[in-house]
Amino acid sequence: MQFYDVARKVVEGIYRLCFRIRIEGEENIPQSGTFVVCANHKSNLDPPMLGVCLPIRLRYMAKEELFHNRFFGKLIRALGAFPIRRGKSDVGALRAAVKMLKGGEWVAVFPEGGRSHDGHLRKGKQGAALIAAMAGVDILPVGISGEYKPFRKMTVRFGAPISMQQYAEKKPTAEDLQKITDEQIMPAIAALAGVKTYEDRDR
To answer: Residues 6 or more apart from 107 whose CB is under 8 A from it?
Structure first.
């Protein structure tokens, strides 16, 4: 048994002891193929929550600073994380994600690019759509709701996959990627999480 499998069982035991986890939309989780998993980001506890609720090993994009500590960096690498430089285009991380997807692994991306602290989604970035288009895979939207407090209910909802097949033969432009992000990915996540998108927050 790999370290990831052991760690997942340990984390799952801790999470289920601490929170009342409810999983909805399991019928939307594909049984085959490779996907980019896109979820809202409200806490540092979100990545393990996705790992607990999905019956498949996930790879995660994590900010580069988390890898500066040698011990912690090795630990999160063993758990499926790989670094990305925030605030700039990290071509190496994007290529790594595409390689993982083409190799049959699932990659989790938080398209907000950081945690939201006001209960609404931040404006989505194009990275998730770009990676999915480059790898030729679809996107699985996820909404995480509830408070990470002892014995509180946490709900993880999986939505219907968002197809990216129209870009299998055609390279998307930056405008295409932002449109997919603003009109498909972020609204799907918002509906699943029960929160407002960046565009709807003042309405």
So the answer is: 36, 37, 58, 59, 60, 61, 97, 100, 101, 131
- The residue type of 47 is P
Cβ neighbourhood burial of 103 (10 Å; 0-12, 13-18, 19+): exposed
| pLDDT value at residue 203 | 62
pTM for this model (two decimals): 0.90
Q: In this predicted model, which residue has the larger pLDDT, 71 or 39? A: 39
